[in-house]
Write a structure and sequence with these properties.
This protein is mainly alpha-helical and about 300 residues long. It is about 65% helix and about 5% strand. It contains 13 helices and four strands.
C-alpha cells in the first residue's frame, strides 16, 4: 500500500506544472507569470501587457475567467490537469453563484470535509479500537523491552500485526485522510495564485491575493487576526488527535511535534495568500467541531 501511494505521488509531482512569478519593476509587486485566464481589472491587465516579454504570455489569447474551462491552456501535466484546473473551475463557478470567491473557497473547504466524513469516522473508530488494543500492545512492549536481536524484532512485529488484525486496526488507512488533503491544499494554493479573478478580489476588507505579511507591513494590522485564527484552529485540530495508543514518552514526543507544527504553520501563514488562509481556518475549524461531536457520540455508545 505504501509503495503504491509513493508511486502515485512521484508520478503526480514529476508531471506537474507549478506557479511561476515575476516582479513588476514599477510597483515592485509580485505577480503570477503563468496565469490561467485574463486579469479582470484594467490596472492588472496593464501590468501583464507591460511585462509581456517577461511573462511570455499574451493575455489576449487567454480566455476570460468567466469563460474558463478545465481544458484551457493545453496539457500541463497530471497535477495541473487533475487537481489545479478543475479546482480553479469550481472556485470560479461557485464564486459567480455566491458573488464572492473567498466565500466560494470556504464553502469548498467545508464540502471537502463533508466528503471525507466517512473516512474520518473510520479513523475515529480505529482510534477507539486502538484504545481497546492498548493493554495487549503494552504487554508486547514489556515482553520485548530488552530484546534487540533481529529474530525478536520480527516476532514482535508479527505479534503486533496479530493484535491489529484482532481489533481491525489498519495503521495505513488511519492517516489516509491527511494524505488526501495534502495535495488538495497545494492545489488550492496554485489555483488561487494562477486565477486573477480570485487574487484580485476582496472578502470584506481583506484582499484574497494579499499575504498577511504584506498587509501588516503596509499598516493593515487586522491581518494579524487571520494569523491568530490559523494558529488557534490548527492547535485545536492537532489537540483533537487521539494519542491513546501511545505510551507516555511517545505522547510527550507527539505533543512537542504538534507544537512545532503549529508554530511552523503559523510562520508559513504570514507568506501565504489570505484566500488560502480562509480555506485553512474553515477546514480546521470544521475538523475541530467534527472531532468534538464524534467523541461525544462514541462516549455515549
Amino acid at each position: 500500500m505504501k509503495k503504491i501511494l509513493i508511486l502515485i505521488l512521484a508520478i503526480l509531482f514529476l508531471s506537474t506544472g507549478c506557479t511561476k512569478s515575476f516582479i513588476d519593476e514599477e510597483s515592485e509587486k509580485q505577480y503570477t507569470k503563468n496565469i490561467l485566464c485574463q486579469p479582470t481589472t484594467e490596472e492588472v491587465r496593464e501590468i501583464y501587457i507591460k511585462n509581456q516579454e517577461t511573462t511570455k504570455i499574451n493575455i489576449e489569447e487567454l480566455s476570460t475567467c468567466d469563460d474558463f474551462k478545465v481544458t484551457d491552456g493545453g496539457y500541463e501535466g497530471l497535477w495541473t490537469s487533475i487537481f489545479v484546473k478543475p479546482l480553479a473551475w469550481l472556485i470560479i463557478n461557485l464564486g459567480k453563484i455566491v458573488k464572492n470567491y473567498g466565500i466560494a473557497i470556504m464553502i469548498l473547504g467545508i464540502a471537502l470535509r463533508i466528503i471525507l466524513l466517512p473516512m474520518s469516522k473510520k479513523t475515529m473508530a480505529m482510534s477507539e479500537n486502538m484504545k481497546k488494543a492498548k493493554p495487549e500492545l503494552d504487554k508486547l512492549e514489556r515482553k520485548y523491552k530488552d530484546k534487540t536481536d533481529q529474530q525478536s524484532m520480527m516476532m514482535k512485529s508479527q505479534e503486533m500485526m496479530l493484535v491489529y488484525k484482532k481489533y481491525n486496526i489498519s495503521p495505513v488507512s488511519s492517516c489516509l485522510t491527511s494524505f488526501i488533503q495534502l495535495p488538495i491544499l497545494f492545489a488550492f494554493l496554485e489555483a488561487i495564485q494562477r486565477v486573477p479573478v480570485i487574487f484580485e478580489e476582496k472578502l470584506w476588507i481583506v484582499h484574497l491575493g494579499t499575504t498577511p505579511w504584506e498587509g501588516i507591513i503596509t499598516g493593515q494590522y487586522y491581518y494579524i487576526i487571520i494569523v491568530l485564527l490559523i494558529l488557534i484552529t490548527t492547535y485545536l485540530s492537532f489537540k483533537n488527535i487521539n494519542t491513546v495508543s501511545m505510551d507516555e514518552m511517545q505522547a510527550k514526543q507527539m505533543n512537542i511535534m504538534n507544537k512545532f507544527m503549529v508554530g511552523f504553520i503559523g510562520i508559513m501563514s504570514f507568506g501565504l495568500p489570505t484566500a488560502l488562509a480562509f480555506y485553512w481556518i474553515v477546514s480546521s475549524g470544521f475538523a475541530v467541531v467534527q472531532g468534538i461531536i464524534q467523541k461525544k457520540v462514541v462516549s455515549k455508545k
